[in-house]
Each structure stands twice: as structure tokens, then as C-alpha cells.
Write a structure and sequence with these properties.
Four copies of one chain form a homotetramer. Chain A has about 140 residues and is an alpha+beta fold. Chain A has one domain: Thiol Ester Dehydrase, Chain A (Roll). Chain A has two helices and five strands. Chain A has a five-stranded antiparallel β-sheet with strand order 1-3-4-5-2. In chain A, helix 1 packs across helix 2. The longest helix of chain A is centred in the first third of the chain and has 20 residues. The model of chain A has no long low-confidence stretch (mean pLDDT about 95). Chains B and C meet through helix 1 and strand 2 of B and helix 1 and strand 2 of C.
Chain lengths: ~140, ~140, ~140, ~140
């Protein structure tokens, strides 16, 4: 299990009313929505990803999550993000969900993006700005 | 149209990846999810609403929204909240969605809660702590 | 209050696990997602709406819902759809949510689309195929 | 890769407008919502799971999905469901998402439920009715 400081980037997520399900805690599915949000917010802000018109877009080809502790609306959590493998056209991210002041994650997962052409949906090499931004999230990327 | 300063309470909402729809902006439905989130976060924090075990809960009986401008992930917005009518067992909220630094709302709406017993779902008078918290959001509530 | 037979078109919606909220019934926000789904499915199937590349798209400028009865996952409901006003570039839909075998709606609402150019987002006259499909949902549209 | 006939149970899912994301296809996160829906609908219908008041509830402790092909609103898909491992208090499900007439899955995944007491959230043996329903989804369960 990773700790908060094992993730070089943190993205805050405020839970929403509808994240809670009938069992009174955040539904397991929402954690993936937070992964998607943290990753894409990073790519847009630091990697020049243009989700509206850019030629290259990232598609999820695989994802995973394991759950250790409940999160409950209205708490605010942080998504820790790091890059485990940076390939020519794909990236494997590792992520952790941290409750306030917790060092151990409430959930941990991973997510693989393949970058493709927006029109033909065939693999593309990562654009330079995107690659540079992602390299900074590798274990030795500082 | 109301301005940002016409709302006594503001709740920040960070957009999420999935809020954007196929047309590239936040889907109209999400604004209602933000209303629900801002209202319930306020009731929990200031009004002692216990969503898990409290005897009295709030159910939405009517809602409305009009849309003036697009919001796009990953921007952060604020939900302005005020109380337009505070009845014995019901509350009418008015809400505005404000983009960063905007004085005019991207959307405006209202939302009516009826408070009911958790088990019998029949109307209940608002608990005192809830009423006091909501009274502070009335136009003359400061 | 309208009855099931007051709506000329019906779109089935199977509830999902996450539609239920912490109070054990479908969250008020989801009804709007069902409205959006029923309307757009109709426009795509009968009105030749091309959500991916079409020049004209429909944006929601106003919506409303009033709630009469709870719906609970895993039930299946039907969304009744009719057209109340068909303008040059806008449409006002009226909708009802019907539980199985119910004649009276669990919820009723309305939704206004303005059709705009995909790029400039300025009003456009409704394309002919769309107008013809919508005219069939007017009270005298059979 | 499994085929449609490798799954003993199939649950239909109609896509919704908001399932599509900015890239014009169903967002990767929604597949997990469909998994959750198919599993719980089965447990409620065939296994006497009482999500509102039952003493034993199922919590997700791990999930996974790999994506092979896009799904686009308004299409209707089927979720194939089988049980890979049935333990004393946990179940591992395997799932596939099938587009109309497709024999190969658009996505495949798995999902692990641990059954716990509603109040203490500690592991419980699966209730008999639930176990019997799940045993029918094992490879040799017919």
C-alpha cells in the first residue's frame, strides 16, 4: 500500500450528494470518475491536452481499483497521481484516494491511457508537451 | 437576473471529466446535481442534518433551472444559495451558478425541499437547528 | 396532472444502482437525465439528429420537474414525451415519468431546446426532418 | 476473451445521453456502473437481497475493466454475468459488455463483493438464498 507522499501530484475532489449510494457511502464507481478527473485535469493544465479540438486524445483501455475504507459525502478527498510506465503512445497511471489527514489510501488503483488520433482512433506518439508533463510524475521525475 | 452578491452563501464546485457531454460543455443535468450538493452540504454543516440516521429528511418536490452560459470541465464554479421562502415543513431555495470572477450567473434555478419523517415520509416541522441555519440565508437573514 | 395516454411517445428507462441515493430512492436529479435521454433518443431515431457531426445541435435553455411519487432501483419506468410548442429554432417538450402500470406520473416536467450551430452556437431554424419528427408529438400531431 | 455464451446471465442496459463523454462515446466509468447494476439487479431479483433493510449487504472491495470497443448512446447493450469464485462471505463476478449481435465483448471485467453486516460492516456468511442464486452462475452451476 502506498502512502500519500508516494504520489508527486495531488488533485482535490469535493464529494457530491449523489456520490453516496443507498448504503450511505460513496459508490465504488465514483472513484473511477475521480481518477478520470484527476488525470485529465493534469493533462489539460500541464500537458496542453486540448479535449475539444486537439488531434491526439487519450482513451482508457484498462482500469482497476481496490477499496480499503469508506468515503462519505460531504467530505473532501485528494487523488494522488503518479506515472508508473510511460510508453511511446500509452501511459500507465497509479492513483490513490486520500481522506483528509490520512496517510494511507481509502482506495488505490491504476488506469491506462492509449493516445490515439481523434478521427481515426489509431495510436499516436504522445505529443511532446504531454510527455514532458507526464515524465514529471514518474518516480524519478522531479 | 441576480448577481453573485445577491446570494449570502457560496459553495465551490470543481467540475469533473464526466460533467462534460458530447457537445463539449457541462450537461444541463449536472447543474441540478450541484444544487443538491450545495444545499445538502449547507444543511449538514450548519443545520445539523443527519443524512444517515436523522428522523427528519428533506425530499425535493420541485426544481427548475434556466441556462445562460456554458461551463466547461475543468473549471471551478461557485453555487450561490439563498432561501426565498421558509415554511413550517418546506423550504424554497434559489440558486445561481457562477463562473470564476463572473458577477452574472451561468445558470439560475430554484429547488423546493419538503421535510418528512425518514420512515413514514410524511411532512414534519423543520427541526430548530435546521430552521435557524436556513433563516440566515433569507434576504434579511444576516 | 397528465395521464399516460396524454403522451404520444414513451421511452423505457431501466433504473440503475447508482440512481438510488442515500434515502433509498432515485435521486431527483436523475429524472432530468431521463428527460434528456428520452428526448435525444427520439431526435436521433426519428429526427435524423447527428450528435457527432451534425451542423445543428440542441441545447437546453430551461427545464423543470415536479415530483409526486418515489421510484426505486431496480424498477423500470417509462418517460412520456410530447411537444407543447414548436417554434422556428426552439422546442418546448413536456414529459412524465410513469411507473409500471401507473396512469398518473411519478414526476412531470418540461424542457426547452434551442437549436444552434455546432460551431457558432447561434440559433438555427430546425432542420426539416427534426421538425417533422417533433410535429408528430404535438397534441394534434398524429 | 470470453464470448456471449460464456455468460449464463444477461442483463440489458440502455445507454443514456450522459453516458457519452466529450469524445462522443460512452465514458469508461459508466461500464462499472453497468456492472454494479447488473449484479445488484440479479441479487435483488433472484437472491432476495434487500438493499433497504436487509441485515447483510454487499460491498465492492475490488474491480477491474479492460476495454476493446466503443459503445455509443443511444445503443442498447447486454451485460453478461457469471460467478468465478464463491467463497464463504465473498463473491468474485466476471462480466462482459456486449453490443447488439456481437459475440465478442466491447469490454470485460471483474468485481468482488464482500458481504457484511449493514451496521457493523464486518464479514458475514452469504445468506442461503443469495448463495443459491449465485451458485447458478458458476460455470457448472446450471
Amino acid at each position: 500500500m502506498s502512502s500519500r507522499h508516494d504520489y508527486p501530484h495531488h488533485h482535490p475532489v469535493a464529494t457530491r450528494w449523489a456520490d453516496n449510494d443507498v448504503y450511505g457511502h460513496v459508490n465504488n464507481v465514483e472513484y473511477y470518475a475521480w481518477f478520470d478527473t484527476a488525470i485529465n485535469a493534469y493533462l489539460i493544465e500541464y500537458g496542453e491536452l486540448d479535449i475539444h479540438g486537439g488531434e491526439t486524445i487519450g482513451l482508457c483501455v484498462e482500469s482497476h481499483c481496490s477499496y480499503n475504507a469508506a468515503v462519505v459525502f460531504p467530505e473532501v478527498v485528494e487523488v494522488g497521481l503518479r506515472v508508473a510506465k510511460l510508453g511511446r503512445s500509452s501511459v500507465r497511471y497509479e492513483l490513490g484516494i486520500f481522506r483528509a489527514e490520512a496517510q494511507e489510501p481509502a482506495a488505490e488503483g491504476w488506469f491506462v491511457h492509449v493516445f490515439v488520433g481523434r478521427e481515426d482512433r489509431r495510436p499516436r506518439a504522445l505529443p511532446d508537451a504531454l510527455r514532458a508533463a507526464l515524465a514529471r510524475l514518474e518516480p524519478d521525475g522531479a
